[in-house]
Every structure is written in C-alpha cells, then in structure tokens.
Amino acid sequence: MSSRELERVEVMGRVGSGDLKLSDAAVMLELSYRQTKRLWRRYRQVGSQGLKHGNAGRPSNRSKALKLRRRVLNLIRKKYSGSEEERFGPTLAAEHLGEEDGIVLDHETLRLWMLEEGLWSRQRKRKKHCQRRERKSHFGELVQLDGSFHDWLEGRGPRGCLMDMVDDATSRIEARLGKEETIWAAVAVLRAWIRKYGVPRALYTDWKNVYKRKMTPAEQLRGEVPVTQFGRMCQKLGIRIIAARSPQAKGRVERNHGIHQDRMIKKLRRKGIAGYEGANEFLEKEYLPQHNRRFARAAAKPEDYHRRKPTARELRQIFRLETERRISNDWVIRHEGRDLQLQATGQRRYGPTQSKALVCEWENGAREVYYRGERIAFSDLKEPIRKTSQLLPPAARAIVVRRPKKDHPWRQGWQKMRPWSSNPAIAAPLVGIRTSASP
Length: 439
Prior knowledge:
The chain is an alpha+beta fold. It folds into five domains: 3-51; 66-117; 143-295, Nucleotidyltransferase, domain 5 (2-Layer Sandwich); 320-380, no CATH class; 409-439, no CATH class. Helices cover 38% and strands 14% of the residues. The protein has 14 helices and twelve strands. A five-stranded mixed sheet has the order 3-2-1-4-5, with helices on both faces. Helix 2 (22-29) packs across helix 3 (33-45) and helix 5 (90-100) packs across helix 6. The longest helix is centred in the middle third of the chain and has 21 residues, at 251-271. The N and C termini lie far apart (95 Å). 21% of the residues are buried.
C-alpha cells in the first residue's frame, strides 16, 4: 500500500475508535464527505485492504498511445512552437491540429503534454492579488518554522540562531537556541515538538537549502524532484513542507521573532545565562510555558490533527543523514574524504561491485553502512603518508649549475667505464674487434 493509503487506514482507525468525526476525517484526507463515507463503509466491510486502490499497477484504460503523443509533440515543435510571443497555446494548437493535421485531441490533454515537454508555460499577465490568509482551524494542521539570528546573549556568550516553531491555529510555540540554522538545529526543535504534541501535518518554511532547494539541470533532465536531507526526514514522517515566497507569507513566526528579541533577551539577562545549554534549559522549564500561557489561543475547532508520536527507535531511523556511495572493486567506499573498508562476516557475500551502499550518520557522530537494507561492518582505512616538500629560504632557491669534474666517469672513454676494462687479457681482444669493426 502507498503512504497515502496507509494514512487513510490510520485516519479510519481513529474514526472507528471515536477519536475523530467523519467530517474531520474528510478534512484530514482532503476528500469530500461523501467519498469519506464510502471509504468508511469499505473499511468496516473489508478492513484495511478495502482502502487499497483496485487499479494499482495497471495502465490507464483512457491513456493515449505513446506513438500518437510523439507525433503530436513533433508537430508542435515544427509548426506551433517558438518564442513566448510566437508559440501557440494548448487551446489554439489543439484547434490547428484538428483542422490542418486531422488529429482530434482535447486541449487539456495537450496542455499536460506540452507542460511536461517544456513547450508551454503558464503566463500571468495581470497583477497578482494578495490577501490576508486566515488561520487554520485545527491544532497541528500547519506549523510555521523559521530561524532568527540575533545577539541573544548580549555579548555574554556567542551569537546564535533561535529555531522557532509556531502553530498556525493556536500560536503555541516551541524553540531551541543554537549556533546556526542547520539540519540538526531544525531536527532538534521538530523532535521536541513531536515529543510534546505529535507529528504535524505540514511545515511552513523558507526557501533554504535546509528545507527545500531548486532543481539542478541534471535533475530537470531526469525529471527528479529535489529533496533535501530534512525534506526526506519529513517525508518519512508524513509531513508536507510548504516553502514561503516572502517573509510576509509566514508572518506569524516572523512577528514572534520580535517578541522573543524583546522579552526573551531581558529574561536571559536577569538570569545571567551565557551559553546555549543554559538558555535551552531555561526555555524548556520557564520561558516557553509562560509564553504559551500568555499568548496561545484556542483553535477554531477542538479536533487535534497531529498524528501519533513515533517511538524512539522509529525516530532514530528517521532523523539521520543518508548518503549513497559507490562500492569500488576492493570493497571500499569513499565518504567525506575518508576510505571505509567493508568487511565480510562469516558466509556473508556482497553484491556486484560498482553497486551502491547507504551511509547513515547521526548527530552524535555515529555512522552505519547498509547494503540492500542490511547493515554491513566496516573499518576506517588509514590515509597514506604523503611526503611534503620543505620550502627553502629564498637564498637557497638559487639555481646552481653543476658541472662534472675532469676525472668524472662521464668524461672518460668507454673502455674505462666497463668493469672488465681493468683486465688486459679480456680488454685487448675486444678493443681489436671494436677497432677492426670501425670504418
């Protein structure tokens, strides 16, 4: 079953236990109420298998032939393509295909084909209308995440970044202070949120490489969707990441930064805190509970949209860095400038060479290597000692021309350069042969 179908099974299970109403389940699954009633009926009659799609793995009965699609796209490239001012839109191109080429095709089908091939893009000529976004109605439906760089310790300690999470429906917050806005900083505050409330449905973040990144040219050619390490962790948790286009889009967390830069700094000053560890302990025990009691509000609807809290073992398998590395012929993989030698245990046999192994790293520095889902023992290879040339002072770097002495072997004849030339009995016949052979 797909992750979407598993999510439906989980939500239907909560409906069966009485934790959710059927109308709330429809909102969580983003389905109509009637469709949710159908799923609920199938779930009661068949169980979880009833929620599995019956056409899974089968080609669509209404799909167009691949040969027709290639022919249509070739005609568009030749006759109806060009610059943004010259190219035909899907509707006009569909009309000309029917009139001139005798190919009747719906303009929406042609629109999808042209978008996939990059032959057309949506154009917005009118100015975009912006309006204030209303709060979400349920706790855990959307959580905003952002980092704020500031001199939080006012010179008593290093500058830092406050990782702040704010629930969109209730303004409830969770925060951690660290050095930078890194993957592990985002993981720390998200782990704290999950430990208290559960897994939220969506995160509203910046367009930063920690959360989301743009496609590279190679990924565009392969049609791959770029996923960051933090994005992969959120995918495993079922969290959707929404990237904001401007700071105003996630104004709730941005306004909270201003509150913290006023109230939190003064409270840290009174406590005399001068380090990250002490600041986080103060946040957890005093500041966050006080802030939530004062500023948090009740959600518009009482249902909690958080998913269940994963176990510690599940979180360990999720919150880790995963990198694929190619296995060389001598069972060595190269990772972060180090050579890792894979080791066989007992009758363990590895797969073919040039396959890939998965290197997993945790925040505490622990590292494991997996091949086809199984853990493989490894050892670090020592780097070879490389000789480094010692730099001489400028006076010693002058070019010295060395000339051989007069009695140097290079200046002697060939007879004196041979070891047998000292024996006259051997050297005389050879000298005669050499002399007679000479012209």
